[in-house]
Every structure is written in C-alpha cells, then in structure tokens.
DNA sequence: AAACTCTACTTGTATATACAAGTATAGTCA
DNA sequence: TGACTATACTTGTATATACAAGTAGAGTTT
C-alpha cells in the first residue's frame, strides 16, 4: 500500500533523527531542499515539516529554518495516556517489567486515597515501564477490588493496567498531583538513576461512576522526562 | 494589524461555538461553504478547520464533514493562575522580591523560545514570590518588547508580570512543560532550599494574537509545592 | 422491500505559482 | 572598522486547480 508523499518525508526526517544523523538543535533540510530531494511540491514538503513541528519533534522559525527539537519525551499534562501507546506513538520500543502484583491490606493513607475503610484489602501492582530498553516510568498502583475484581489475574506485560481498567471501569473523573521528589533507593535503582536525582511524581486518582477505581503513583526520572500541555483561550 | 485569513476563519468558528450557535456534535460549515462565505481558497478554509481539529476543538471525517468536538475539560494544572491570587486565595500573605528587571540580548535558545531573531533585545524579569514570608516561586521571565513595550516601567511589587501581561497582551494560547530539576546555587539560595533538593520547573510560553508574549521559567521547591488538576469525562 | 447505481456532497492529497516577511551574510562605502 | 545595502536563503500565507477517496441519499430496478 502506498503512503502519502508527505508522510514519506516525515518518516525520512524521523528516521534521520532516530538513527542519530540529526541531533537536537540540528537544522533539517529546508522546504526547497526536500522538494528537490523528493520531487514534491513545496506545500507537500511544508506539510511534512509543519506536522512534525505540531508533534513537537521539530521547531520552525520564519527566515531561520527548521530544527530538531529537544529530544526528551513529553506527555500531556491533562490527558490520561496509556504509557505504552505514548511510547509507541514516538516510534520507540515499549516493554515493561512486573515487580509486584498482589492483594495487600490498605494503610490509613492508602485507604483514604481509594475512599475505602482502613484495613481494607486492595490490589497493588508495581511495574517498570521502559522506552527503548531504558526505564521511563515506575508505576505503583492501588486498585479497588470491588470495581476490578479480576485485576490480579491480568497479564500486565501484555496490557497496561491503565488499558485494562479503562475497559472494566470506564473513567468519569481523575485527579492529578505533580510534584518534584527524591525517591527512595529501591525506586532509584529500578529507574537506573542516582538517588539524589530529582524525579517527577504524578499521583493520579481515577474514578468511574461507581467510585474510586485506582490510585497510581508514577515516578519519572527528571533528566529523562517532561510533562507538557497546551491551552487555547 | 491585519490577521491572516485562515486565523479569521478560526476566530469565526470558535466564536460560533462560544456563543452557543454551534454545540458539541454539530456540523460546522464545510470547506466549500467557508470559501464562499469568506472569499478564500479552499486550502485556506481547510487550514483553519484542520488547525482547529489539531487543537481538538473540531473533529473531521473524510466524506462526512467537520463537527464540534466534545467540550474539553480545563484543569487547573493548565490554568494560568496569578501566583499572588493563588496565595491569597489560600488565606496566606503574599509578597515578592524583585531580583532583576532589564533589557537583555537574547541567546539562540531564548530567541527561539520567543520566536524572535537571535541577538534580539528582550526584556527579562526575575522575581521571588513568597507565601507567608517563605519563598514559593522563583520566576525568570523573558518578554517580547514589541508586545509589551512598557514592561520595564512597571512596578512588579504591586502587580505581577502575569497580571500586567494579561492586560496589555491578552492570551490566546499557552504551552506548558513541567519537569523535575535540581537548580543552580543562586536559585536554591533564593528559594531557601538546599541545592540538592528537587524543584518543579514549569516552563510556560504564552501567546497573544500578535505572537509570543513571554517565556517564563518558574521554579518551585519540591518539598513545598505541588501542581494539581482535575479532569471530568 | 431490497439491492444497486448515480449524484452530490464531503474531506484528503497534491501541484504550481506568487508574494510577504524574516534572517544571515557578503560586499561596499565612508 | 562600522554601518549600510543587496542578495540569497529561509519560512509564512495564499490562490487556483485537479484528482482521490469517503459518505449519504435519491432514484431505479428487480
């Protein structure tokens, strides 16, 4: 099947970046260079570059040129994205390691986070999500067993907790808290960072119609991850 | 100053939605209808609709049409809050210290952040915002002198840069990036934290109709500040 | 009544062309 | 040596045109 010519140019540019021929800050071929190289119109070349700019892979400046953007991954501040989909959407390899999957007794804080009684049994999963073999996110999640009774029987190497929970308890609400923290030694080890390095911690509480579904603590190495968002007025 | 024709069409569509003439799910005028109504080419009409689609204000389907998207929730994670108002809303005392207010020559990176030429003169302000006498936010901001020519003559002890810029260059767009960082010694000193402590860094680029207004780097001590947000579906 | 065809609409991709606006650099002049 | 100008590049906006592909609905045929 034939892909559109503008998409072929995008693939070429992304390929150059991924193979290391173009580094952040490097200038990419101009619209005129691409029209010569690919035998397309300038508007087709322009569309390819403009879309990569919209995707924040490139940055463009009138009169100056088009450059490779800062490489560090960034996800939307608001949207609840499936980390696997997010990594794959960047054209990168995703895999994860399962660290823990068990029923546990909720502490006072944990019970409060899930709006359950202290001492309740809750499900807990701990996973390490990796991009291109490098740890990106340490996910420590508590789940309400009432709303996802089969949680412990899932294979989270095949499907993220997020994807599974979206199926069995569709979201109606979510709360986020973002903070900068230093993590404990075991999380630092898992993320392959020094324990003095700052991490982004996103605490996310998600609800369905029937109540709080899960409370996830997500840790990202500060030097390898950023959250982004865009507002219009 | 004249705005581009594609932008005028975007404004029209957004205006129709905001005034309630177009509701989520409603079909918006087709490309052909817009070219007749606005006397533009189909590609110009198309660009307006395509950008609104990229911004998730509209959804498009080949052969079907263009429709108003479901209203997106807006979270305080992204809201541009005036730090003074935020602190006062908590019933706390706000004051700030002015560290720097000057015209500077933009580096390559700074120029790109403001969509200006390298070496351009830009305005820079550095302020320390405090809650109950304790530093909460270190604000390092670059401002486009064209859009706020009187910036250097303001008294930012009386009115935050945010408040002032909202008056002289009303916002139409903003981008945020949130990351966890360790800050340089001078910022750590100002924030009254140890330089090994993690900080939240929010990079915020704000635009008005006429272009990029400012690029602010906001640093918050990780142990004293969290960003929060709420989503509804 | 169901299936098929045709028409009229829609968006998607693409080209050629033109002018505007921004930027950097080389060359010239004082 | 610095200022100025011209040139050559860049991206930004816009038009006219053409064909491809998708969709819905009206009309026709079986």
Description:
Two copies of one chain form a homodimer. Chain A is α+β, with helices and mostly antiparallel strands. In chain A, the strands form three sheets. In chain A, strands 4-5-6-9-8-7 form a six-stranded antiparallel sheet. Chain A has two domains: 5-68, Winged helix-like DNA-binding domain superfamily/Winged helix DNA-binding domain (Arc Repressor Mutant, subunit A, Orthogonal Bundle); 74-225, Chorismate lyase-like (Chorismate lyase, 3-Layer(aba) Sandwich). Chain A is 27% helix and 36% strand. The model of chain A has no long low-confidence stretch (mean pLDDT 85). The first copy, chain A, contains seven helices and ten strands. In chain A, strand 5 (121-131) and strand 6 (134-143) form a beta hairpin. At the A-B interface, strand 7, strand 8 and strand 10 of A face strand 6, strand 7 and strand 9 of B. Strand 7 of chain A pairs antiparallel with strand 9 of chain B, so a sheet runs across the interface. Chain B binds a DNA duplex (30 and 30 nucleotides) through residues 4-6, 30-32, 40-44, 46-47, 49, 60-66, 117-118.
Protein traits:
homodimer, 233 residues, alpha+beta, Arc Repressor Mutant, subunit A, Chorismate lyase, 2 domains, six-stranded antiparallel sheet, two-stranded antiparallel ribbon, 7 helices, 10 strands, 36% strand, elongated, DNA-binding
Give the count of structural domains of chain A: 2
Query: Please, how many helices of chain A?
Result: 7
Largest interface: A-B, 40 and 43 residues
CATH architecture annotation name of the largest domain in chain A: 3-Layer(aba) Sandwich
Q: Evaluate the radius of gyration of chain A.
A: 21 Å
CATH fold-type name of the largest domain in chain A: Chorismate lyase
* Average pLDDT of chain A: 85
First and last CA, distance of chain A? 40 Å
Q: Could you state the CATH homologous superfamily of the largest domain in chain A?
A: Chorismate lyase-like
What string gives the helices and strands of chain A in order?
Answer: HHHEEEHEHEEHEHEEE
| Backbone structural class of chain A | alpha+beta
Sheet with most strands: strand arrangement of chain A:
4-5-6-9-8-7
Question: What is the general shape of chain A?
Answer: elongated
Q: Are there runs of chain A of 5+ residues with pLDDT below 50, and where?
A: none
Biggest sheet architecture of chain A: 6 strands, antiparallel
Relative strand content of chain A: 35-45%
Number of extended strands of chain A: 10
Oligomeric state, counting identical vs distinct chains? homodimer
Binned, the helix content of chain A reads 25-40%
CATH class value of the largest domain in chain A: Alpha Beta
